[in-house]
Amino acid sequence: MAETVFYILAACTVVSALGCISARNPVASVMWLVSAMFGLAGIYLLHGAEFIAVIQVLVYAGAIMVLFLFVIMLLNIGDGPADLRAPPMRVVGLAVGAVLLLELVALGRYSAGRIAVEADPLGSTALSSPTAAFPGAAQALAGTAERGVVGGIAESLFTTYLVPFEITSVLLLAAAVGAVVLAKRKI
Amino acid sequence: MPLGPSLVLSAVLFSIGVVGVLVRRNVIVLFMCVELMLNAVNLSFVALSQVHGFGGQVMVFFVMAVAAAEAAVGLAIILAIFRHTRSVDLKSINLLHG
Amino acid sequence: MTFSVLAGLAPLLAQATGGAEAAAPASSGGVVSAIGMAVLLPFLGFLVNGALALWRPDAKRIVSMVGPAVLVGSFVIAILVFLEVRSAPHAGPILVHYWDWMTVGTLELALQFQVDQLSVVMMLVITGIGSLIHIFSVGYMRADPGYARYFSYLNLFVAFMLILVLGSNLPVLFIGWEGVGLCSYLLIGFWYQDKANADAGKKAFIVNRIGDFGVLVAMFTLWWSLGTLEFSEIAELAPTGLVVGGGIVTLITMALFVGCTGKSAQIPLYTWLPDAMAGPTPVSALIHAATMVTAGVYLVARTSVLFAMAPTTSMVVAGIGALTAVFAATIGLRQYDIKKVLAYSTVSQLGYMFLAVGTGAYVAGVFHLVTHAFFKALLFLGSGSVIHAMHHALHATHSPADPQDMRNMGGLKRYLPWTYGLMMIATLAIAGIPIFSGFFSKDEILAFAFSRAAEAPIWYLFWGMGLAAALMTAFYMARLMSMTFLGQNRTGQAEQEHLHEAPWIMTGPLLVLGVLSLAGGLLNLPGFIPGLPHHLLDTWLEPVLEPALRFAALDLPHGATEAMLIAGAVFIAVAGLAWGFRSTGRAALVAAGEAPDERGLWRVIYHKYYIDELYHAVVVRPLVGLSRIVLWKGVDKGLIDGLMVHGSAATARGLGWLGSRLQTGQVGVYVLTFLLGAVWLLRAMTR
């Protein structure tokens, strides 16, 4: 059941991504990307990362994409005559993308296989149930029944990763200041 | 929840993002394709957090925060450039040619 | 080369008078260890006169004293050394070691002098005649602004020549060999402001260099085959170490002979000697008559053991000597410049010397070397007197006529009686009239050639050529004397008042040389004259030539054959002289300006058979063309300048341009590059 849903969502995401990169109108591009993000949010849910799924929708789709829309409308860009680059570049782009895909898949197989081998050198554990290979992770995930996923993330975030958390907040402040400064007409 | 297909999906989305970066002429759409790539990576992290614990999801948290900051600043830059060159065509940003 | 020599001679200053160890089979006296002084004195003269030439060129007084004085000093040392060697004739060569020059692997070269009978003879000739010529030069060059420079070069020449004859191994000899070539260049081109003189100097040096290559090849081959370059060791090792008549010894001797053809002006490398007459006349007397050109004959005599072991080469040597003797004599028949006649005469007489050593008559060759030095120096210095007088006369009347052209002379007997008399003695000597020195030496050579012919008939040809050359020698010398001193004077009425005999400082040396030309035959009289000591030189040089004579001993003809040969030679000499005097006396000679152009065969002879032009077309032009087109334009400008220098600059610029193409300033390109790099990295990780 979960698998079917996954494949449906995956298909939607991929179609949306393709639409995003090929849409002529920038606003249409934004909408396609939003759709892709929704699909991804669904997949996050399937993975049991509820918190992340929700923030994805709230922050990414809801704030960042809206920011994009604001800028597009501010600049008042309509349809470009030919919004894709010259044909040679298109061929090169597709080629690079294809090669990259192949490499990443190969990498993925390699690392997944290694995980399986590390977990069970005798090779009975299939790729599809990695949770069985890492009892510790399974236990941590099992603890979510009490605290929920948010609790789990919070624990990591405010203890182990506290410093990066604080720095990220400073970063956001800097970004905000920077964006204001850059966008002013006269400094 | 199967790990493999998620990773493959992540790779596919990433590649699509790469193609988009190379093929599009509009700077803002280019930026969006970069966001797509970031999302693909997020998916990777989330998928692997099943195996490795909450560290993956914390990563995604940070990635999103930084992506937000980056989007803000990047779009501000695009605005500034637009004021100079009056277009969002990639070709018009070539003042650093040598 | 000059540098290394100068650097090499510096320690001589410290060691010459006492520090030198004399290594010898016999004990050597203090005199021989002072042999270094004999070389050092002229060298000091060079330094002093050179310094004066640079900073006080008008201090002629000092130069007049220093220049000849160092030579006389060397001559005194030479006499003392001669007495020393005479007291112990069979003691073997005395080696005076100065310092180790090079020790590389098994090669051990030392700067070492070898004092034996042969080097003593050469030393006496060089310093003795050298002193006379220096004294003559004091008068001759008095008015020249380059007076000090002249004497410094002349002194340096003597120093190098002494190194050449005193060297105990080939490299030291070669130092002297090159050094005299250098000084010859400097002195021929002494009046370098006239380009023709500078060109003549260059020609001499370059043609000599071609020969030097032969000497180098010989040195290398000798080292490779025998492992030594010391003359005494060669004399010991060669008879057993090399195959008689074999390829190696033939190669060595042929290569040495190539060097001799260059230095001693034989065919084919003789062309520089006539041009060398562009230098001052005393230079021609010293360098191109008495000393430098005889270096080749000395070299053959010194390495006589090798030549005696190579009959093929010896035949070539004799053949070329004979051919050169005849060839040069024919050219001398029709030259009008007095010095040119003497130059070709020198080439011809050198041919006689090589005929002698090629025949195996090494003593005869050295004998002729000595007597030739006497009478040729006398002839040159005498002509110097004549030219001095002519120059003075023509200069006084501002006439543009050539003072050296015999057609402008005539009847000078009246004005230069001493010069006339002494030059006549030299003429009789060179023609081979009995009693005079040239008769004995030339006759000995022809006699040896004739006796060699009994084993190898080709020597009859050489002997015949020698006779022909003798006839022509007598003829052109008589012609020279006749055109210069006899008959009517053609210089001009106004000039005649200014013609006068040379001052005593010039005529004095002529006198001494005259006596020597007359009495020089005493050095090696043949056995049939009763009462007088005979074969002095033979006995003297026997210890040196003994290894060679083992291979190529030769007997002089005796009895009837001997008498016939002598009679024949005398007849030819007298006939030649008579014919020469008569043919020029009869014809109405005209001054150079009005003389008709030569025609036919005479024209070819006058233009020296166009050999110079031939060399120019066959050797010089292709070489210059090769240098200019292939080496200069092709290699130097094209390859080195173009490809390497400009090419590397262009490559750098090109690479830079390529690099600049990356900086398009376009974000899209940057992104592409970025991603390509990422793809490449990932590829590495998937391996």
What does this structure look like?
The complex is a heterotrimer of chains A (187), B (98) and C (687). Chain A is mainly α. Chain A contains seven helices and no strands. In chain A, 79% of the residues lie in helices and 0% in strands. In chain A, helix 1 (2-22) runs antiparallel to helix 2 (26-46) and helix 2 runs antiparallel to helix 3 (50-75). The relative contact order of chain A is 0.06. The model of chain A is unreliable at 122-128 (pLDDT under 50). Chain B starts with a helix and ends in a 13-residue tail after the last helix. Chain B is built from three helices and no strands. With 98 residues, chain B is mainly alpha-helical. Chain C has 687 residues and is mainly α. Chain C is 73% helix and 3% strand. Chain C has helices at residues 2-15, 30-33, 35-55, 60-87, 117-140, 147-166, 170-188, 195-226, 231-241, 247-263, 272-275, 281-290, 295-302, 304-308, 311-332, 338-359, 362-396, 417-431, 437-452, 458-485, 493-496, 504-519, 536-552, 559-586, 600-606, 611-662, 667-686; strands at residues 21-23, 94-104, 107-115. A three-stranded antiparallel sheet of chain C has the order 1-2-3. In chain C, a hairpin with a 2-residue loop joins strand 2 and strand 3. The longest helix of chain C is centred in the C-terminal third of the chain and has 52 residues, at 611-662. The model of chain C is unreliable at 6-28 (pLDDT under 50). Chains in contact: A-B, A-C, B-C. The interface between B and C is small, with 13 and 10 residues.
Shape of chain B: elongated
The chain pair with the largest interface is: A-B, 91 and 70 residues
Structural class of chain B: mainly alpha
Q: Could you say which structural class the secondary elements and strand pairing of chain C correspond to?
A: mainly alpha
Report the span from N to C terminus of chain B: 52 Å
Number of strands of chain B: 0
| Largest sheet properties of chain B | none
Cross-sheet strand order for the largest sheet of chain C: 1-2-3
Please give the oligomerization state of what you see: heterotrimer
Number of helices of chain C: 27
**In percent, how helical is the residue content of chain C?**
over 70%
What's the gyration radius of chain C in Å? 30 Å
The proportion of strand residues of chain C reads under 5%
What percentage of residues of chain B falls in helices of 4 or more residues? over 70%
Main sheet properties of chain C: 3 strands, antiparallel
Along the chain, the helix and strand elements of chain B come as HHH
Low-confidence stretches of chain B: none
